[in-house]
Structures are given as structure tokens and as C-alpha cells.
Amino acid sequence: xxxxxxxxxxxxxxxxxxxxxxxxxxxxxxxxxxxxxxxxxxxxxxxxxxxxxxxxxxxxxxxxxxxxxxxxxxxxxxxxxxxxxxxxxxxxxxxxxxxxxxxxxxxxxxxxxxxxxxxxxxxxxxxxxxxxxxxxxxxxxxxxxxxxxxxxxxxxxxxxxxxxxxxxxxxxxxxxxxxxxxxxxxxxxxxxxxxxxxxxxxxxxxxxxxxxxxxx
Length: 216
Ligand SMILES: [Cu+2]
Fold this sequence. Notes:
It is a single chain. By secondary structure, this protein is α+β, with helices and mostly antiparallel strands. The chain has 2 domains: 5-151, Cupredoxins -  blue copper proteins (Immunoglobulin-like); 169-215, no CATH class. Helices cover 24% and strands 20% of the residues. The protein has 4 helices and 10 strands, in the order H-E-E-E-E-E-E-E-E-E-H-E-H-H. It has helices spanning 5-16, 124-132, 169-182, 199-215, and strands spanning 19-24, 31-32, 35-36, 43-48, 58-61, 64-68, 86-91, 98-101, 113-116, 148-151. Strands 2-1-4-7-10 form a 5-stranded mixed β-sheet, with no helix packed on it. A hairpin with a 6-residue loop joins strand 1 (19-24) and strand 2 (31-32). The longest helix is centred in the C-terminal third of the chain and has 17 residues, at 199-215. The protein is globular and about 40 Å long. 29% of the residues are buried.
């Protein structure tokens, strides 16, 4: 199969893309961090908290704070959760500065503003000062523009007793791997359904599974 240099570069960018997390109203009417940097291909992941909710993220211009930019993005109004797993994500398309604000009530005027990749001569403090003077706080007409809104699953902890000791995710991983191996026809069909299991048994079954795999 033929890959052009462009394809390779795109793949490389995908590999190195990172997620930049920004908290929205995590205990205060602000974005945290309110200044950060991101590379093209990175994902800005806004985590909405339920403090004084709902809130929004709107892309604005430095010169006209609290107003949508011509190439705006808009999360819509999001209620958030106590843990901030209610998220709005948008992919960074260029290294141009991204000034943004919350369009709820007078949150923009009250300092709920942020920036990604600010130029050296423009700061979030300057944007906040200008925002304070804005006559109105304007949201785009659409309910959502670009990006995607999702409620991320919360972490589920599954307890597994090993020799009567406390559970450990590593042992759970081993047990799952064992289950996979035994599923391929090893003599033992030990269930890993969450019940007590001793360590020697786990490795014994793994060894058996390994032998079975060699014999296939
Ligand atoms: Cu807000």
C-alpha cells in the first residue's frame, strides 16, 4: 500500500495530538486555565461544572469582546456536573489565537474569558479589561456550532478479591487476560467472574493458556 508524505505527516500529527483540558466554572465564574497553548490537531476539551450553571464557550475576537467571532464556535448552554465530566470538545485548526468567553448572563463582562495561543503582546488580562466595558454579552443564534458535546463515562471500579487481599486493577487485568487465553481452548475453563481467585491459580491458568497457544 502506498502512503504519500502528506499521509505520513497527517498520521504523525494524529499520533502527537494531545488533549488540552480547560475547566468551566469549577467552583468559580472562570475558565481554568484561562491562558494556554495548543498545537494544530490538539483537542480543546472544556469540562463543564455545575457551579452557577449553565455556561457556554463562544469563540470571540480580541477587538470586540463578548461578541461571537465571524468564524465562531459555540458549545451551546451546558448544565455541567459536579465532577466536570460534561464536556464540549473542539479540534484546533490553526495556531491563531483563540479568544473565548461565556455568553451566560454577564459572565463575559465579569471575567469568564480565556485564550489559547495568545500573541506575545496581547494577554487575557487585557481581554478581560476590554470585556468589562462590553455593552452586551452576545451568544450565537444557533444552539451549537462545531465541536461535540458529550457526557464522559465516570470511572467504574470493579472489586476483585485476590487471596483475601484488597482488589487491584493489575490483577483484574491479569484475570481478564487469563479469560481470553482460556477462551482459546486451554484445558481449564476457569471463570473470572469476579469471585475470589488465588494468585497461583491465575498464573497457572496463564501458563496453561500459553502452552495451549503454542500447540495450536
Ligand atoms: Cu458562565
